[in-house]
Amino acid sequence: MGIHWKIELHRGGQKLIIPILLSRQLDAVFATGAFMIPTSIYFLLKNFIVKPYYRRREKQKKLENIKKTSAEIQQEREKAEKAQQLLQNVAIRKRNRQLETGGLVITKAVYGNQKALNESREGDDQLASEIIDVTLPLNFLVNDSGKVKLHEGVKKSGIMGFFDPCPGEPKLLLVEYTYGGEEYKVAVDDYEELLIPQRSHKV
Questions:
Q1: Are the beta carbons of 23 and 51 closer than 8 angstroms?
Q2: Stretch 185-191: mean pLDDT
């Protein structure tokens, strides 16, 4: 009998119980204090030391992940830009040939964050960083028949000259083109088929 604290320690599946005798006599006031003191200490430790510590640690981890992801995205962007340089000469020749015959010419193509494309505003660096200009790679993909086809179910970031500027976010490919001297526009999701030209895309 009496009043005592019982401390339990858990580590590696093992449990250690340490009893601490506070008083051999039962006393209501002493018992109340014995209950309130550890409860108050626990509350103070949890709310003013433990929780702030874990919040700081989580915030630090998020910052580290953001920095790591940003560095990886920059590397992928540089790879895509180098790939576009390799495609440039052929893409320009194909574009000029299509211009001469009134065929398919990609005038603008951008790929990236769906929200960024829908809300794109000039001077917004954050939105701009989540988009890549893919006009050149799409002109390169124009075949001799004056058509471009991107198959359904194939992620577009894997196309040469493309990359994923916003991992984990929904992406969109927006294409503006001319055909027969007329203007067309179409937008497709990341895994959606793209087949151009089509009359339904006419502006």
A1: no
A2: 95
Q: Is 21 helix (H, G, I), strand (E, B) or coil?
A: strand
Q: From CA 130, how far away is CA 76, in angstroms rounded?
A: 12
How far apart, in Å, are the Cα atoms of 57 and each of 52, 54, 60, 63, 116? 9, 5, 5, 10, 30
SS3 assignment, position 8:
strand
**For 22-42, what is each residue's pLDDT tens digit?**
666 666 666 666 667 777 777
Task: Report how many helices (DSSP H) and strands (DSSP E) the chain contains, helices first.
Answer: 5, 8
pTM for the full predicted model: 0.67
Q: Which residues share a beta bridge with 87? A: none
Tell me if residue 194 falls in helix, strand or coil: strand
